[in-house]
Amino acid sequence: MARTKVAKNIAYDDVRKKYYVTFHYGNGEKTTKTFENKKDATRALKQFEADKANDEAVKPAQDSLEEWMLYWIENICRPRVRDTTFYGYMNIIQNHLVPNLGKIKLQKLSAADIRDYQRDKMVGDRPLSPNTVRKHHELLNKILSDAVLEGKIRKNPLGIVTNAKKTQVEH
Predict the structure, then answer these.
(1) What is the pTM of this model?
(2) What are phi and psi of 14, to 5 degrees?
(3) Which residue numbers in the chain have pLDDT < 70?
């Protein structure tokens, strides 16, 4: 395997016919990603450099949404909320979010995953009320917003997901 440097942080492997881009995060941390062509490799490197300049570069991680939610509930949420709120959040996380979304890698969670979750919760075997699904949406938004603040993800995918409509309870 003979890799030849073709540009700063881009190398070409003439045996595998692939381009390798090295992303330097600072403090000696780096990752490498493979591309089929030089155009895609260059585009990815430019995007990374722009993100890094804007302090938006996020180091790839293998954390699942479940791992992040459990960390969040104990270390970020618990010190900020009352016990009753904590237990309510824990109930939603353990009984709804983890079984349905928990195995997804945090950095791979998409708006489509969240929309599917909301739809399934409102029309599934045991449908939840739109108000309950709103509460799930609001909690997940808090969890993912803190993931952005902690540098775990670049953007909160809930930013483009519409919450369930609030319904009036008749008395």
Answers:
(1) 0.72
(2) -75, -15
(3) 1, 166-171
